[in-house]
Amino acid sequence: MARPEHVSCPFCGERGSNQTCRTCKEQGSALDGLVSYLPYGNPIVREVIGCWKYDGDRSVEPTLQYWIEQSKDRLRPPLENFIVTHVPIHSSRKRMRGFDQAEALSTWLGELFEMPVEPLLIRSRKTKPQAKVHHEKRRVGTLDGIFEIHPRVTELPSCVLLCDDVFTSGATMDAAAKCLKETGVEEVWGFVIAKGSHES
Which residue in 47, 73, 48, 43 sits closest to 61, CA to CA? Predict the structure, then answer.
């Protein structure tokens, strides 16, 4: 059985709160905090997510949905005024996989927690998955500008819950949060099933 991870700053690992700590904020992190439930280093978690994300195995979806439901107590701040959106993959990668895993998660999240869901972002540039990028080369601005506001969006919400399947270096989600904040969103929290170690 996969054990829940400890609550900490999503970027540096400082324990005590799932809010982004003051130091990381001062260093330019746009994400206000991260809700995550399981450690990505757990082999069971990694295998289930990998089977779903890369192999298209839909039989693991009930397990993923259960993990999402168990994370409800970690939702901070209160999210009554939040819109759920997702970190989109590039259109070419979506065609290859047949679906966007983060988009599916946003739909489940909206249904489970009765929150409105809206696609707010598009990915304008294809990048190498951050899990395959060496730790020292992550989060150094290489992902700036890879997201744009979806052309069908006419008005942005003030608060967004931004979801993805996994948080590793934080570079991708932080780039998405930065795009949202630069265009008027005031508060952006992340939501993922699993988070990797900040040292991985």
Answer: 48
